Amino acid sequence: MSFKNREVDGLGQPLPHGALRIYEPDSHGTLRYGGASSIQDTPKDEKIDLTLASSFDLFSEQRVVSRKQIDKRTVRKEIELTLHNDKAAPVDIRVVQGFSGGWKIVQESRKHVNLNAYETQWTVPLPAESKTKLTYSVDLRY
Asked: What is the mean pLDDT of residues 6-20?
């Protein structure tokens, strides 16, 4: 989840470091716990990126499909993630994967975006009450 700390969106005040809890209405309009995260000190008009924890109806399963030694210092891993949306509404799931050392995505079922030298991200739209697979192969150099 991302948003800007700006007045037009009902915020626009410096936000202190701390816990943030998200609640969302269910199909009857009753607020349900959607997840939690923490934020750093955030000035007015700055962007806040959150990764919510403990969202009960969005989850993933990950497995290593194969692991192959490419050369003396490089291993290729094929990863499969099954993403589940048990919500009654469609969502975009942001999958962030961190790597250490040298790495390169060599195959993927969806296009990734590099966040920095150590992290990449996929954004996967999921219809309500559905699941889908995200697969990728990565060369890891040690």
From this structure: 89
